[in-house]
Amino acid sequence: MAKKKRDTKMNGISSNARGRVRTVTTVMNGRGRASRNRGEDTGQPQRRPFYENIHCHQKAKSFLICSVFVSDSKVQTEKKNLVHKSSMASLLKIVSVSPRTSLSSSSSTTSVHSRPPLAPFFPLPFTRSRIAIRAAGNQVDEPNQQTKTGSSFNQLLGIKGAAQETNKCKLRLQLTKPVTWPPLIWGVACGAAASGNFHWDFEDVAKSIVCMMMSGPFLMGYTQTMNDWYDREIDAINEPYRPIPSGAISENEVIAQIWFLLLGGLTLAGILDIWAGHTFPTIFDLALGGSLVSYIYSAPPFKLKRNGWIGNLALGASYISLPWLAGQALFGTLSADIIFLTLLYSIAGFGVGIVNDFKSVEGDRAHGLQSIPVAFGAETAKWISVGAIDITQLLIVGYLLGAGKPYHALALLVLTVPQVIFQFQYFLKDPEKYDVKYQASAQPFLVLGMLVTALASCH
Fold this sequence. Notes:
- This protein has helices at residues 72-95, 128-138, 142-149, 152-157, 168-176, 181-195, 202-230, 232-238, 243-246, 251-276, 282-298, 308-331, 336-357, 361-366, 372-376, 378-402, 406-427, 435-457; strands at 9-10, 13-14, 22-28, 34-38, 53-60, 63-70.
- The chain is of the alpha+beta class.
- The strands form two sheets. Strands 4-3-6-5 form a four-stranded antiparallel beta sheet. A two-stranded antiparallel ribbon has the order 1-2.
- It is globular and about 50 Å long.
């Protein structure tokens, strides 16, 4: 090769350009092997060229030498292109919104679900996307926040602060709210005790367990699942992480669960009537009546819960009176004094129902439900609640004194005192913040007082 410098032109650009250029030489031999040698820097650094120059020459038949000169400005240009492409991809991800989310809570839904064939008496169609949009519009990161900070124990009990769950069995259990079962189970026990005919043998224990299953997991589970169904839009505001508004469970699965629990509870009621030898289906009628009250409490056009007074009284009767009467009818007969006492305790149940209304004030107000806290304000509603609970028990104390049961009356009065203490310690300070702690502390004394009253009525 000649030593003097040769200028080769490619695409009209001279290779004898000024600037600092890195030279990479690749030598390919006939066997396909390659070796790379880095050349020396040439020229003085004045400016960075923006071009590529390929200088090729053939030294022999078996060798090919290619010199590729790549400028730093080309690398910078490629980096800018990558940043531009990344920015465009991020913009496209923001603009592309899935059907289950929306940039605004007022956006219209893209699809409307028809009423499933399994729910002939449920008049409202259910659209999961609409509920998900409302939940996202009010609290965008709530489901993720609940997933990280929610409690699995709360999820199983079906109370506020539950963790997000995907297991269908756990979701179905959450819909039934097991935390609401104990008052009904205890009501059955009080009715059995008040009958005076309960014995600690296998048959009576088995009867009482079946009656407790009917009242708690089945009929109360039916009530709570149906209430969640009709409150799905309210829950999208108050508790958007619950199974229905979050879309974790489908509408057909919810309706199938409602039917299963209702029919299962009524079937157990019929079995108990046969088992007890009733000629008139007393327990079945109580179960059917309670189911009807639960339906008109939650469902339009009646929707008793729209009115705080009527709704909570119906709730108190379902929680206390009906289970007590079912347990009494299973082992004995219904009497006027027992009906009177259970109705009095329904007023206490009315007060307990107000405690649960404080956590739903925002959603109730948005949907026009006149719960006691919405209608009267939080401060007045607190005193209505504690007044209904405490005055009811004091009235029953007076009734027991008049019936010649002074020791039972004294025991009930003693059990009322810690309830008042916990009311001032928790509930009257902040009913929304301390509702769970208050009920966990005070309600055991309330239900023990019910048992004392039941034992007094059987002697």
